[in-house]
Design a protein that fits this description.
667 residues, alpha/beta, sialyltransferase cstii, chain A, ten-stranded mixed beta sheet
Length: 667
């Protein structure tokens, strides 16, 4: 009897290896490497699979304890008692809940899609919210997250009951997952559900893995069911919650993309100088110059005496948000960078300046979607524009991020700076004051201790906090939005580290960045820094920037824009064909046509920027429709299909027409 059980376990293991080899190659190689380590005694097993009284258990040799310490089969079967098809039980909510009044919804017909996405999303979201049944129970479960594997006995039981279309299986320990290969036939399980494995992934690996999964499965992830089998998955839960609030369409919604495109084309047609940021430029004027990047973190104000004393020994690059602070401390930035398109915030900073002529010798690097009023506040010859969300200048690159700090850092890397000191780029709360920025900065927030917003369905980009590696301390507290910027800075650092000779120093008491050396201002030997002839350096920099910039559309760009226009009209014809004369016999048919429509709109064409904008609208709204379609007990489905179809067509059509109008715009 025992021999037969052992043989079956080995057979299951070998079948699973064949399945992993064919369908999960990276995971297969991980398991094989671990097996090899065990066989040559390079790795000592911590866990052992033991057959006890008619069931398997896992023995932990290190802790001298059992994983289940009870009948694992019975324990796993009891999990089914708590499973439910109700959408709000044991789920993650992947969207921000919004409710609209009658007045807002009635106004949306006349509001441009360049207005806030709050208005653009209102018709679909409000319709779905108003017609939800009293009990929201799903017909099908599309995604089920399983935190912890153990022996995995609960996984097929869970699948048999829920019939989930996709199982996303998370396990921190490769060794424990390997033992489950003896007890669960994943090959057989894969026939009834698509399997995604996240096994022994570190935080960066899991962050990329889950974000990629979420990007592809957005339409079906209004709510995501989960089962918490193990209690050692907190890191993954935090990353998942961050992934929800940092989805690309939430960070940069379609209305912002349309406005960005409009301003980009407008400024290009007005012959502003656009910098080519598609590749590293290595400006000669930056070579071996000590560059001090100043941002609005608490560390800037704490070290302002250092900056004032040594301002003539550094080439100073500052974010626009601290413009009044610099004037107050008599620090003229050599370069100032601004990305944010907000009219109100950017112009408020201008009003705080006492004498705008103080910045006459500053060179401004502005994103292509900043406020027109800000753009015209400074001398045009001192302004260079980099493209933000979309391109008007073909192959000139684009740069997007929620934080001006990492935008500025990226620009310095692109322009070839090879000696950079970061100050005020904290990306974390100050350990002493609990502040996110220096006192007096508009967007300053305070860390208030235990995060009250960090629940499964109440996670906020700008409020939820967690710990990350510190620059001078082991750990510091940060915000989800800062973590996006930290990841961005790390990606940029890792991308450009191959360029020899670059030295990056972080002077801030905040988050740690990859390939950036922690350094206290007190440890800098400023006697080794020479005084900089700022006037000469400014002239050299203007010369270098002009060489990598263009002030007009080339003939190739004019041709490309004509092709974009033609492609946009063709895309509108395709889109119209999905609406005019269409009738749907069921919710399922409507669902299928929406998917087909999306795939057609996503086909490669000259107007890929329009596709990205439309896709953003889809990501904001389609999951509401698919969720509604998937609910039980929705009365009169044909009526709802007709209404939702009309609303959806109207909104997307407005986006396409707005795009065409932007391309046709004459300045």
């Amino acid at each position: 009897m025992l021999e037969e059980i052992q043989n079956n376990a080995i057979l299951t293991y070998n079948m699973n290896l064949e399945y992993l080899k064919e369908h999960q190659k990276d995971l297969f190689e991980k398991v094989q490497l671990f097996d090899t380590g065990l066989n040559i005694a390079e790795i000592e097993a911590r866990y052992e699979l033991e057959y006890k009284d008619k069931y398997f258990d896992i023995y932990d040799k290190k802790e001298n304890s059992w994983f289940y310490n009870t009948d694992s089969v019975l324990y796993s079967s009891k999990i089914l008692d708590n499973l439910s098809q109700e959408s709000k039980k044991n789920t993650f909510k992947t969207f921000y809940g919004v409710e609209y009044g009658d007045e807002i919804v009635s106004r949306t017909k006349d509001i441009s899609m360049l207005s806030s996405s709050t208005f653009g999303n209102a018709p679909i979201i409000d319709y779905v919210n108003r017609h939800l049944p009293s009990k929201e129970e799903m017909k099908e479960i599309f995604v089920y997250l399983i935190f912890g594997v153990g022996l995995g006995l609960h996984i097929p039981l869970l699948q048999n009951k829920t019939k989930a279309k996709l199982l996303y299986i998370i396990e921190p320990s490769l060794e424990i997952f390997r033992l489950s290969l003896f007890t669960v036939n994943y090959s057989e399980l894969s026939k009834s559900s698509q399997l995604h494995f996240a096994i022994s992934k570190n935080s960066n690996e899991f962050n990329k893995h889950f974000a990629s999964f979420l990007l592809k499965g957005n339409f079906y992830t209004h709510y995501i069911k989960f089962h918490m089998f193990s209690n050692n998955c907190d890191m993954y839960v935090n990353i998942i919650q961050k992934s929800f609030v940092t989805q690309p369409h939430l960070l940069f919604s379609y209305d912002r993309e349309l406005k960005s495109l409009l301003r980009t084309y407008t400024y290009a047609r007005k012959n502003f100088a656009f910098i080519d940021i598609s590749k590293q430029q290595k400006l000669a004027s930056f070579k071996d110059k000590a560059i001090l990047l100043l941002a609005a973190g608490p560390s800037l104000k704490k070290n302002i005496d250092f900056v004032m004393k040594n301002k003539d020994k550094f080439f100073i690059v500052a974010i626009y948000g601290i413009i009044a602070f610099l004037e107050e401390n008599n620090i003229v930035p050599d370069i100032m960078v601004q990305y944010d398109e907000s009219e109100e915030e950017t112009m408020r900073a201008i009003k705080e300046i006492k004498n705008i002529d103080f910045f006459n010798k500053t060179i401004f690097l502005f994103s292509s979607h900043i406020s027109s009023n800000l753009l015209h506040s400074f001398d045009k010859k001192n302004i260079f524009i980099f493209q933000a969300m979309h391109e008007a200048k073909i192959d000139y690159g684009r740069l997007t991020s929620p934080s001006i700090g990492d935008i500025t850092y990226s620009l310095l890397q692109i322009l070839g700076a090879n000696l950079v000191y970061l100050l005020g780029l904290d990306m974390a709360f100050d350990p002493d004051t609990g502040k996110s920025h220096f006192d007096g900065y508009d967007n300053d927030q305070s860390f208030i201790g235990e995060d009250k917003n960090k629940t499964n369905n109440n996670y906020s980009l700008r409020k939820s906090t967690f710990s990350v590696k510190g620059n001078f301390q082991e750990l510091v507290e940060t915000l989800a939005v800062f973590k996006v910027s930290i990841d961005s800075i790390n990606d940029v650092s890792n991308k450009y580290k191959k360029f020899s000779g670059a030295k990056m120093y972080n002077l801030s008491n905040g988050a740690f960045f990859d390939n950036v050396k922690p350094l206290n201002t007190s440890d800098i030997n400023t006697d080794n820094l020479i005084l900089i002839n700022k006037d000469k350096l400014r002239d050299d920099l203007l010369f270098d920037l002009e060489k990598v910039s263009s002030c007009e559309f080339s003939s190739a760009e004019k041709k490309k824009n004509s092709e974009k226009m033609e492609a946009a009209y063709k895309l509108k014809e395709v889109f119209d064909s999905f609406y005019i004369g269409r009738k749907y016999s069921s919710m399922t048919k409507f669902n299928d046509v929406l998917l087909l429509m999306h795939s057609k709109l996503c086909e490669e064409s000259a107007c890929n920027d329009l596709y990205r904008i439309i896709n953003s609208y889809f990501c904001h709204n389609i999951h509401y429709i698919f969720y509604f379609i998937n609910l039980k007990d929705v009365p009169n489905p044909k009526k709802h299909i007709k209404s939702l179809h009309k609303i959806f067509y109207t909104q997307v059509d407005k986006i396409i027409l707005a795009y065409i109008e932007i391309l046709n715009l004459k300045v």
